[in-house]
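Section 3.1: Structural characterization of target chains.
Under the original work plan, the team committed to producing a structural model for every single-chain target entering the pipeline before any wet-lab resources were allocated. The record below documents one such target. The sequence was received from the expression subgroup and is listed exactly as submitted; it comprises 313 residues.
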Amino acid sequence: MTITQLKYVLAVAEHKNFTLAAEKCFVTQPTLSMQIQKVEEELGIQIFDRTKKPIQLTEIGQKIVNQSKNIVNEADRIQDIVDQQKGFIGGEFRLAIIPTVMPTLLPMFLNNFIKKYPKVKLIIEELNTNDIIEKLNNGHLDAAIAATPLQEDKIKEVVLYYEPFVAYIPENHNTFSKKEIEIEDLDINEILLLQDGHCFRDGILNLCRNQNKNEKSHFQLNSGSFETLIKLADEGLGITLLPYLHTLNLSEKDQLKLKHFVEPKPAREVSLIFPKNELKIHIIDALRDTISGVIRGAIAFQNIQIISPIQKK
């Protein structure tokens, strides 16, 4: 069997459809089907149960797919080894960034990075943390930028910076007159939160973990936008918490509504994460150095308390 045949097997296992897998592999469906059939004949087993819709892996097929992932990933690393030996920083690099970091961090470093490393083709996508972990483990990403720690055995975390939480409090709120606020000043039932799936939301819930959320509120909000939360707060519907970098782009009028916490300030840890067997370390190091260079002047907070992005039950 060949590496190409194993890639076809993995494509069908992922998409559960021969036609779609063929499209993703840029071959015709008959070609892909024939090559997979050759693998099955060589091994004397059935990898896929074609009688089910969608197509399912057989028990032995699942084991073959697991091993095929290891083989294909290691084969793809050969060029990485050569590039690293030559000191070449280039090639395709797949990077994901969580939604609450992407809008503020990416514009800060992307232009610097592509000018310094023009031979690197960055493929960037915005994903939530759960999708990032799955894609890193499946070999569909080279690295990601996410809130940590994540407690994932197969993933390495390199801290980029610590970003404090900042409260956005309208003038009519009873804590607006305070110069600085404390965690005890927060009421979880009046904090406007991002929708489920955002680790920043889970961080806030962990920050207020000693309080109970009232599920009988007058409205339920499913928004992934800090701008929406700010506008609702201005309408008197509550307060919200923002990551520090997001506050730098607010208007002078809105800046007056920001309240920093007393020290140690609650903060999130933002890291560059990647599989422990990743060999594109030369590009990862280049990303880390570029981001560290631009972020150093933006965040100078030292006395902080790290709030976990993993929601406690």
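The mean pLDDT is 88.
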